From TrEMBL:
Keyword field: Membrane, Transmembrane, Transmembrane helix
Pfam families with a match to the protein in the record: PAE (PF03283)
Xref: InterPro entries: PAE/NOTUM
A GO MF label: hydrolase activity
Protein name, as recorded: Uncharacterized protein
Entry keyword Membrane: yes
Record family assignment: Belongs to the pectinacetylesterase family. Notum subfamily.
Top-level taxon: Eukaryota
Keyword Repeat in annotation: no
Entry's transmembrane regions: 27-50
Length: 329
């Protein structure tokens, strides 16, 4: 009789030993692989960050290869409030497009020695063109004009772009007009869009009447005034008195085409646009509860009345301008 033998193999002691240690080996190898997977990418990222921070920047470019800082060193009166030479910034579109966006920035003003000393101490970035926020060129309104050539003029004069005084270092007027004498960037322009925010908008209202005649009648000229539509709020003359005081302090230069007896009225929107050629397209962006004007006029309880009068003032010029006037601060 043939005996039957089980087909299942019998594990030897050596085999059992090898199976006992194979699992810990796999765990250790897994830990090593996981460590390398986490460490190597981190080292690569850190090395790239370090390399980016230590790469030397081009001396002629402030932001990237397309943005260039242009000094007004050839114009001795084009100085900021800290007495440094003013600069502006230009980015030429890759296709050298014939459309231009020219942006004049804002940022309140000072109107006396005390208020200007306060500004120097607590708002140092607003009295120089040395330190510019790079994000400004890649966000907001500028991000929508990637196909345009861009000229950006920082606000460093604290005088609504209107002054010409060595005594008080108020040279906004001098800076504004030096920019357009500096380079003939606009000789091939077919469309120019001027944008002014806050004090920059007031600067456009004041200075553009003298600048427009220098452009060919074939150029499509457009203007956006953002948060700079002031009107004569007779119920509270506090704001007007500050502007009048400032205009004396800055030695404000008024266009010869503005013949109003009260010089401050040349800064008021409804009066200033009368000096613009009829062919120029104008868009006004103005909050009906503009915190700047409410603060300037020290208006609290009468804010609603101010808003209604501002709305009516805009409507009176609606035949000449396009209006976006939200009812929010």
């Amino acid at each position: 009789m043939t005996s039957s033998v089980s087909s299942s193999p019998i594990s030897s002691p050596n085999l059992l030993k090898s199976k006992t240690y194979s699992k810990p080996y796999r765990i250790e190898i897994g830990i090593i692989v996981l460590f390398l997977c986490l460490t190597i990418p981190s080292l690569i990222v850190l090395s790239l960050i370090y390399r980016r921070q230590t790469l030397p920047s081009s001396p002629s470019s402030t932001f990237d290869d397309n943005f260039h800082q242009i000094s007004l060193i050839n114009y001795p009166n084009a100085r900021c409030m800290d007495n440094s030479i003013a600069s502006y910034y230009v980015r030429l579109a890759n296709n050298r497009h014939s459309r231009w966006l020219i942006y004049f920035d804002g940022g309140w003003f000072c109107y006396s020695k005390d208020s200007c000393d306060f500004r120097r101490q607590f708002s140092p970035d607003l009295i120089t063109t040395k330190n510019i926020n790079q994000k400004k060129f890649f966000s907001g309104i500028l991000a929508s004009f990637k196909q345009y050539n861009i000229l950006y003029a920082p606000y460093c004069s604290s005088d609504l772009w209107s002054g010409s005084s060595n005594l008080t270092h108020s040279h906004g007027y001098d800076i504004f007009h030096a920019i357009f004498r500096q380079e003939n960037y606009l000789q091939h322009a077919k469309q120019i869009l001027f944008v002014g925010f806050s004090a920059g908008g007031l600067g456009l209202l004041l200075n553009l009447p003298d600048l427009f005649p220098k452009f060919s009648s074939h150029i499509d000229l457009r203007v956006i005034i953002d948060s700079a539509w002031f009107f004569d709020y007779s119920d509270n003359p506090n704001g007007i008195s500050k502007i009048n005081q400032g205009m004396i302090y800055w030695n404000t230069q008024i266009s010869s085409s503005c013949q109003l007896e009260s010089r401050y009225k040349c800064l008021l929107g409804s009066e200033a646009i009368k000096l613009f050629p009829s062919s120029v397209k104008i868009l006004i962006i103005q909050s009906l509860f503009d915190l700047t004007q409410l603060y300037l006029d020290k208006i609290n309880l009468n804010a609603y009345d101010f808003s209604l009068k501002l709305r009516d003032n805009l409507r009176q010029s609606s035949h000449r301008i396009s209006i976006f006037a939200p009812s929010c601060p």
